[in-house]
Amino acid sequence: MTIETGSSKQRVLSGIQPSGNLTIGNYLGALSQWVKEQHRYESYFCVVDMHAITVPQDPATLREKTREVAALYIASGIDPQVATIFVQSHVPAHAELAWILNCFTPIGWLNRMTQFKDKAAKQQADTVSAGLFNYPVLMAADILLYQAHQVPVGDDQRQHLELTRDVAQRFNYLYGETFVVPEPMIRETGARVMGLDDPTKKMSKSEVDSQYHAVYLLDDLDWASKKIMRAKTDSYTDIRFTNDPERAGVNNLLEIYATITGQPHDAIEAHFAGKGYGVLKREVAEVVVEMLRPLQARYREITSDPAYLDGVLAQGAERASTVAERTLKLVKERVGFLPPYRRP
Ligand code: TRP
Prior knowledge:
Helices cover about 55% and strands about 5% of the residues. The protein is mainly alpha-helical.
């Protein structure tokens, strides 16, 4: 049986947390794919501020970053007339469904989540919140509310998607078909941009230890270029795609180049044959800078008119709520909540 979504197009939902600064990894692994697919699917892109508070946040910074991420969605090419852009906390159905799904998620499933273990290990044990533990359930609510068929995410979110599928299937089994069981949409290139300073770690938007770790989407262009020129490489000389962990730095630069230019690997290897790492870095820096230049111009345009973004987010929350409320109402019926009485 298929679930009625009222549209001939399949749905897509994804989100990014408004913590830290968005990196070229967010753009190459997620945003650029959202842009590409926005016409093919009925798309919902949220700024997940409720996920952000699973670790401590400064309130003023969180507000500022929430607007920044939404503006970066648009600057990256998401058209708010085509896709629905909204802030997660503006649609209360996310919190409501998350609670209900928490009651259908065995603790054992959450205990297996590697991202929780990693994040918890970085904090003092007595400050790790229950929210951080339940984070994947809120993510499942985000996805299932919209009956999303496809969820474009980076490679690191595979396990959370698997959990979402398990929760949806369990609920469907217990109460009858209620949720579309979503599929991860993970692109082959660019899914995993690694840190420039340490190519064994995924490029992160909240890395604070090294200023040479990531290129941020709003970095000054010269500075972005300098960071790439300083990227860690190795003491070999040939330039080729490789799984050799020792050579992860060179492979990462090549992957960035491949994702931006869209050229096949063999053509890229031929292009760099006989050239040195200096040339490789300069050319990678060049394509990154030319990717960022128009994005930043568009970002400045968007942020010069705050009322425009207010309007996009107001409309986005309305459209998202309509869809989300429909699913939530069905879920509440299924679990046996008494419908609210209206006074005559
Ligand atoms: N957990 C995701 C990340 O850190 C962000 C996220 C929250 C998300 N809700 C989502 C992604 C729903 C896809 C769909 O990348």
